[in-house]
From TrEMBL, chain A:
GO CC terms of this entry: membrane protein complex; plasma membrane
Gene3D superfamilies from the UniProt entry: P-loop containing nucleotide triphosphate hydrolases
Molecular function as annotated in GO: ATP binding; ATP hydrolysis activity; transmembrane transporter activity
InterPro entries, per the entry: AAA+_ATPase, ABC_transporter-like_ATP-bd, ABC_transporter-like_CS, ABC_transpr_LolD-like, MacB-like_ATP-bd, P-loop_NTPase
Domain of life assignment: Bacteria
One Pfam family linked to the record: ABC_tran
Domain ABC transporter: 14-251
Protein name: ABC transporter ATP-binding protein
The entry's keywords: ATP-binding, Nucleotide-binding, Transport
Automatic annotation (TrEMBL), chain B:
Residues in ABC3 transporter permease C-terminal domain copies: 66-175, 331-443
Organism expressing this protein natively: Streptomyces mesophilus
Membrane topology recorded in Swiss-Prot or TrEMBL: Multi-pass membrane protein
GO CC list: plasma membrane
Family annotation (Pfam families): FtsX
Molecular function GO labels: transmembrane transporter activity
Keywords: Cell membrane, Membrane, Transmembrane, Transmembrane helix
Compartment(s): Cell membrane
The protein, known as: FtsX-like permease family protein
Residue spans crossing the bilayer: 59-81, 101-127, 147-170, 200-221, 236-262, 283-305, 325-353, 381-404, 416-435
Amino acid sequence: MPGSPSALDTDQALCLDGVTKIYRSAGGDVTALGGVTLALREGTFTAVMGPSGSGKSTLLQCAAGLDAPTSGRILVGGVEMSGASEAELTKFRRGRIGFVFQHFNLLPTLSVLQNTTLPLRLAGKRIDRRQAVEMLTRVGLGSRLDHLPSQLSGGQQQRVAIARALVTRPRLVFADEPTGALDTRSAREVLGLLQEAVRIDGRTLVMVTHDPVAASYADQVLFLADGVLVGRLANPTAAGVAERMTLLAAGVAHRATAAGRA
Amino acid sequence: MLALARTSLTRRAGAFLATFLVLLFGAVMIMAFASMLDTAGQADLISSGGEETLTTMGSVVGGWGLCLVAFAAASTIGLSVRQRTAEIALLKSAGAAPAQVTRMVVAEAGLIALVATVAAVAPAYAAGSQLLRLLVDTGQVDAHVSFAFGPIALSIGCGVTVLSSVLAAWAATRKRARSRVTDLLLDAATDTGQMTWKRVVSATVLIVAGVYLGVLTLTALRDKGPDAMPVAGQSAILVSVGLALLAPGLVRLATAAAGRLFMHRGTAGYLMVQNLRHRTGQAAAALMPVILFTGIGTGILYLQLVENQAAAAAGYTATNEQNNIQTLNLVVIGMIVAFACIMLINTIIAATLQRAREFAQLRLAGATPSQVLAAVRAEGALVVLTGIVAGAVAGMCTVVPYSVVRTGQWIPTVTPWLFVGIVAVAVTAALGAGLGSARRLLRRRAVEAMA
C-alpha cells in the first residue's frame, strides 16, 4: 500500500511525505489534498485516477513543483524540492522533471524543432540538434521539423510535447490527461510513446487520467478520493480499473449523501 | 446581436478598458478644440481678430487632433479585434453568420465609443474653458468673450469618436467574419500582419504629401519667414502617420536586422526574434504610437525652437505678446503629444496583457520569470528603437526645411536635449508599460494562468 509505507524510502525517484493542499477562500477552506504519502521506484509507470474533484490534478501540480503544497515534503531523486521563489523552483524542475499537458502547450510562434529544444535553451544548455531530431524522428515527426504547431493535428502536437518533455533527459515525467484531447488512435500512439520512455529509457512516469484504457498502460494505478489515496491496483487491466472506479464513484456519492444527512 | 454585444462588454470589462480610455481622451481633446468654434459662433460678442484666432484654433489644430483621434481609434480597435480572432472563430463554429459576427463587434465598438463620449463631456468642458482663458490671458481674444460649449463640440466630438470606432470595427471584423474557422484559428496562433495594398497606397500618399510640403517650404515659401511654419509643421504629421501605417513592414525589417545580430546570442534575443517573426501584427500595433509620438513631438517642438532662434538672431527682442503666443503653441502641441503618449502606453499595456497564456507556456517549458521579462524587454527595446528612428525621420521632414529657410543650416544648432527628452519619455513609457504589465502577469502561477 503506497499510502502507508512503514519507513518512507526518500531515495526513490519521487517521494511525497504527508503532502496537503488547502485552498483558502471566502466561503471557507477547501482541502484538495488531505495528506498524501507515497514513494515511486525508478523506471515505473504510475497512473493516478479518481472522480472529478478528487484532487488528482492538484497532486500532480504539487508533485511537479508547479504549485506549492500547504504542508509536507516532496523529494525528487532524494533531493527535497525547495525554493520559495518561482525562479528557484523553475531551476529545480529543469533537467529533473518533464511535463506533458492535456492541451500540449507548445509555443505557437516556435517551429516543431524549436519547441523541442526550448527547454535546453532556457536552461542554458548546449543544443544538440542531432539528438533533438532523433527524438522527433522517434515520435514520428522527423519530417515536420519546421512546421508550426498550428499546422499539426492534436495527436502530432502531443507527440512534439512528448519529445520536448524527454529532451532534457529528466528523471521524472508528469503527464496531465495527455490523451484527454485526442482521438482513440492518436491516444494509443501517445500512450505507447510514454510507455516506451519508461521501458527503454528508464524514466519514471506519473500520469493523471480519467480513462481506464489509458490507465491500463501503467504498471500500477493509484486511486484518489476526496484528497487521500484510497487504493492501489498493480498490473491493471482496463476492465479492472473501470470496476474500481465505479465502486469509488459510488462510495463518494454514498459518503456525500451520508454527510448531507448528518 | 445588441444584447450579445452588451453581455460581451460587461463580461470582459477589463479587455475593453484600453479602448475606452483612448476614446475618452480623444473625445475630450476633440470637444475641447471644437468648443472654440462654438465660442466663435457668438460672433456679436467678439472683435474680428479674436474670432479668427478661435476659428483657427478650432478648425486647424482641432482638425489635426481629430485625425490623430480617428487614427488612434482605428489602431486600438483594430488591435482588440485582432486579439479576438479565436473568439470570432468560436462564434462562427457555433453557427454565427459573418454578418452577425460583424454586427456584434461593431455594436460593441459603437457602445464603447458612445459611453466614452458621454464621459468626455465634463472634462472637455473644463479643458475648453481653460483653453479660452489661455487665449484671453495671452491677449488673443477679448476678455469679455464668454465660453460656449454647444452643438459643434458635441456633434463633432461624438460624431468623430463614434464614427471612426464603428468604421474601424467594421473594417477589422469584415475579413475575419468571412474567413473559414480553421484559417481563423491559425491566424489567432500567429499573426503575420500582412499589409494590404490599400494600406501601402495610403501610406505612400501621406509620405509623398509630407515630403512635398517640406520641399514647398524650401522653395515657394523660402522668403515667407515665420509664415512658413504651419506648412512646415504639417510635414512631420503627414510623414509620421504614413510611416505608422507602414508599421508591419518596419517591424519585419527590424526583425530581419535583429535576427542577424541577436538570434544566436542568448535566450531573450532568440525568443524576441521568433515572436516578432510570427506576431508582427501585435508588435506593429505597439510601434505605431511610438512613431506618432516621436515624429510629431520632434517635428513640432523643434519647429518652435528653430523659429525662436531665428527671431533672436534677427535681433528681435521677444515681446511679451510673442512669449505668450509661444506658450500657447506649446500648450496646444503638448496636448496632442500627450494624447499620443497616452495612446502609446495604452496600446502597449493592452498588447502585453493579452500574452498571459504565452508567458505561462514559456514558464512551463522551463523559463524563469526573469527570462520571460528579458524577452519582453528585448522586444520592447527593438520596437521603441524602430519607432524612434522612424519618428526622427518624420520629424526631420519638418525641421530640416524650416531650419534651412530660417537659419541657412541643414541641422539646426538648437539644444539636442529636447530630442533626448522625447526619446527618454518614449522609452520609459513603452518599456514601463510593457514590463509593468508583464510583471503583473508573472505574479500568478503558470498553471493558474493557463486555466
